[in-house]
Amino acid sequence: MSDNPQAADAFYKAQTLAYWSFAGLVIPLIGVICGALSKSRLMGLKANNPKDAVAIRKTYQIARWGYGISVVLLVLEIAVGGLLWYAAVSPTSGQPPTASTQASSSSDNGLAAPAVSSTPPTTVLLDQSGSGEAQTKPFTTTGEWTVAYTFDCSAWGSSGNFQFDVANTDGSDNLDNGANDLAMSGGNTDYYYDAGQHYLSVNSECDWHVVVKG
Prior knowledge:
This protein is an alpha+beta fold. It is built from three helices and nine strands. It has two domains: 85 residues; 115 residues, Sandwich (Jelly Rolls), CATH 2.60.120.380.
C-alpha cells in the first residue's frame, strides 16, 4: 500500500468497485438457482392431480420469490455501483482546500490551520520543463504557494506515471503531499501553505512542465 494519500484513496476506490463488479456476477446466480430448483420440482407433477397442485403452487412461490430477490439485489447493485463509480472518477485531489478540510488536515499533522486566501498566488518562483526523473531548481516560499503541472506521455507510447515530492533544501522533513498521476497526459494545480526553501523531486517516464507561484 502506498504512503501517498491520493494513491491509497484511488486503490481503495478501485478495490471497492472490483468487489461490486464481482457481486454483479453473483447476484444473477440466485435467479438461476431458484429457476433450476423450480424446474426439478415440477418434473413429474401433474396440474390435474390435487396433491401435485399443492406442490406446484409452492414451487411457483419459490420461483416468484427468487425472481423478486434477484431483481431487487440487481437494482441495488447497479445503484451502489454507480455511486461508487461516480466517486471514483470525480476529481477531488489537487483542488484548493476549504476551511473545513484545511482544519482537518492541519489537526492531523498537529499544526495550526493556515488561513485560505481568496486570491491565488501570482509571483512565479519556478518555471521548469523536463523529461523523466529530475530535481528542480530550489525556490523560496513565504506563505501560500501553488504548483501547476502538466505532463505528456506520448513519447512513452502508453499511459505513464507523473509524480513529484516536495523536499526542503536543508534536508529536514516536509509533510507536503505531491502529485501522483497515471495517464497518457494530464495536469493540475496543488496548493501549499508552508514557508521555506524547497525543491521538487520529479519521478516520471513522461515529458513534464511545472510552474511554482507564491
